[in-house]
Input
Amino acid sequence: MLLDAFVSRHGEAFSFSRQHSCTFAKQVAGDFNPIHDVDAKRFCVPGDLLFSYLLTRYGVSQQLRCQFSGMVSADTLLYSKLTANQIQVCDEQEKVYLTIDFSGEHSHDLAVIEPLFQDYVQFSGQNFPHILQPLMAEQGVMIHPQRPLVIYESMTLSFEQLPTTKPKLSLAASKLEVEGKRGNVTLSFILTEEGKQIGKGEKRMILSNLQPYDEVQMQQMVTEYNNRKLAAGCLDAMS
Output
């Protein structure tokens, strides 16, 4: 299984190291957010890694909603609790980090699930600058250059029929709603199979520490981000 290289198992518990999280972010998701760097002071396991791991472990459902409620630190022992239509991930102190509600038909076919989450996390990893920068420019706001904070809040998937081959994901719409120094981003996407739409989804994010838009500062952020991509040096995923 693809994600075996990124997770450590400890009996009923599991965890994600800094190195494996960094490698997943950069090599699988194409996400160069500095919060996922091995040496980041405020390190956070990518939410997409946690979500993807749960998909491979428990399968994908026709209706699915994933709600994030906390950032996971490296090497935190996590436990998953499964009920009839819900999965919760918590630590030893019962702090909940993620909740997935699901219903409808269900599939454990990794030949479908692995391409699905790979396509999704690659789409998700391209949020900045490709999608977020034009939205911020349109609304006249931007994240703080020195303290950028983008929080992954939730995502939903809804299938008219579960895929049987590799589905294709594409952006359908995007919007940013500003409330003071906070911004709520909604990205809508569709899923197609052999040219036919079979489902849709939505990703929500929160932007904090917003300030007035400055084109020069924004271009500096974009340049720095692109330079990080060129200079990225995570170890090989299997090391």
In short: The first strand starts at residue 8 and ends at 10.
